[in-house]
């Protein structure tokens, strides 16, 4: 690591100086979500004000084998906004190598997954399994930080379960080893996604370290974002599921935090444009077959709660190619416009 370089253009330092620079709101961050936060979605989140986006987790082993899927996940083109690439794994050397490769491919921040509760990740000792082994966390952080000259951040949960809450200790360990920022999802591994995120517990991590802390869990409205900020005092807010079918949530939150107004929602014409552009960018990114399939969940989220939405979702799930899906999408939005004009 070269500390001098970190001083000159440190994206984490820049990110958290926004508020001090008078821009008003804390930075908003798009959460890493496997199967969701691909390049097209991250671009949309940036467009609507996310100051940082995080890639889907990329398995370090797959990364060093340069599998096509891992290279796609870690895609980090220069012309997009600030993006972190998140690596998962449990072998310090492999993770350091994966981090290095990502930096060579343009990553400006490396995030380490220490929170994923999914069985296939945990059984390999990665994700939230790391929270049970602080000694291993120490070795991973030392190796990864020593191997790259960009900031390294971590994303953790409150602990393995109610009896093993060690987020404060992991955050302090990270800070002592040179981690630049810690994101805390306010649940334990045992909770998976059940119950509610504990924002007070996130606040306890915030008051235990000097590095920036990002709060995460259950932010679905601007009002909840403000409440989390007030309860926990975090330096940034990360939004995951609240952005499903609603990538403009970042703009909504920013406006609410800076002006107290909550009235930004795209009208039906803007939404049609957004949805069709998103669909086309997915086809371009993944190719026709996979893009058409991957886009279905986004189309379903965008049209949730709309009249005729259930029928539309049924139709696109059977739609064999992008042309057919696009035609059905345009027809659906035409009917929405007619409904609203009536
Ligand atoms: C579909 C899905 C995929 C996720 N994938 C990842 C991941 O790759 N890496 C990670 O650190 N967290 C992952 N998470 C967790 C989210 O980043 C976030 O911590 C969690 O959803 C809580 O935030 P939210 O309530 O705003 O959604 C995932 C969550 C979901 C729902």
Characteristic terms for this protein:
342 residues; Non-ribosomal Peptide Synthetase Peptidyl Carrier Protein, Chain A; 2 domains; binds flavin mononucleotide; eight-stranded parallel β-barrel; 17 helices
Characterise this structure.
The protein is an alpha/beta fold and 342 residues long. The protein folds into two domains: 3-259, TIM Barrel, CATH 3.20.20.70; 268-341, Non-ribosomal Peptide Synthetase Peptidyl Carrier Protein, Chain A (Orthogonal Bundle). It contains 17 helices and nine strands. The model has no long low-confidence stretch (mean pLDDT 94). Bound molecules: flavin mononucleotide. Flavin mononucleotide (FMN) is lined by residues 31-36, 56-57, 86, 113, 115-116, 155, 185, 216-219, 239-242. Flavin mononucleotide binds at residues 31-36, 56-57, 86, 113, 115-116, 155, 185, 216-219, 239-242.
Low-confidence stretches: none
- Would you identify the CATH H-level superfamily of the largest domain? Aldolase class I
Q: What is the radius of gyration computed over CA atoms, rounded to a whole number of angstroms?
A: 20 Å
Helix proportion range: 40-55%
Largest sheet: 8 strands, parallel, barrel
Mean model confidence by pLDDT: 94
CATH topology of the largest domain: TIM Barrel
**Second rung of CATH, namely the architecture of the largest domain:** Alpha-Beta Barrel
Using the coordinates above, name the CATH class of the largest domain. Alpha Beta
Number of H/I helices: 17
Element order: H for helix, E for strand: HHHEHEEHHEHEHHEHEHEHEHHHHH
What small molecules does the structure contain? flavin mononucleotide
Number of strands: 9
Structural class: alpha/beta
- Described by the principal axes of the CA atoms, the overall outline is globular
**Tally of distinct domains:** 2
Distance between the amino and carboxyl termini: 63 Å
Biggest sheet: strands side by side, in what order? 1-2-4-5-6-7-8-9
């Amino acid at each position: 690591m070269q500390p001098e370089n970190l001083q000159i253009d440190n994206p984490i330092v820049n990110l958290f100086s926004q508020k001090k620079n008078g821009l008003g709101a804390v930075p908003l961050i798009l959460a890493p979500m496997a199967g969701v936060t691909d390049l097209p979605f991250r671009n949309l989140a940036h467009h609507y004000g996310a100051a940082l986006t995080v890639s889907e987790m990329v398995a370090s082993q797959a990364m060093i084998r340069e599998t096509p899927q891992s290279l796609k996940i870690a895609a980090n083109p220069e012309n997009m906004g600030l993006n972190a690439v998140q690596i998962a794994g449990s072998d310090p050397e492999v993770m350091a190598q994966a981090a290095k490769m990502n930096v060579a491919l343009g990553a400006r921040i490396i995030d380490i997954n220490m929170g994923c509760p999914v069985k296939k990740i945990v059984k390999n000792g990665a994700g939230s399994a790391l929270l049970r082994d602080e000694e291993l966390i120490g070795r991973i952080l030392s190796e990864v930080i020593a191997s790259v000259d960009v900031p390294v951040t971590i994303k953790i949960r409150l602990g393995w379960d109610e009896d093993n809450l060690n987020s404060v200790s992991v955050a302090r360990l990270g800070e002592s080893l040179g981690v630049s920022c810690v994101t805390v999802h306010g649940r334990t591994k045992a909770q998976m996604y059940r119950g509610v995120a504990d924002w007070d517990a996130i606040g306890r991590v915030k008051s235990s370290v000097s590095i920036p802390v990002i709060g995460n869990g259950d932010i679905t409205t601007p009002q909840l974002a403000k409440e989390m900020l007030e309860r926990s005092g975090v330096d940034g807010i990360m939004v995951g599921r609240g952005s499903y079918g609603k990538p403009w949530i970042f703009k909504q939150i920013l406006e609410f935090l800076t002006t107290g107004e909550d009235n930004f929602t795209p009208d039906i014409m803007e939404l049609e444009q957004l949805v069709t552009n998103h669909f086309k960018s997915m086809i371009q990114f993944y190719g026709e077959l996979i893009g058409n399939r991957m886009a279905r969940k986004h189309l379903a989220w965008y049209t949730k709660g709309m009249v005729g939405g259930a029928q539309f979702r049924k139709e696109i799930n059977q739609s064999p190619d992008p042309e057919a899906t696009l035609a059905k999408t345009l027809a659906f939005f035409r009917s929405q416009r007619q409904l609203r004009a009536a």
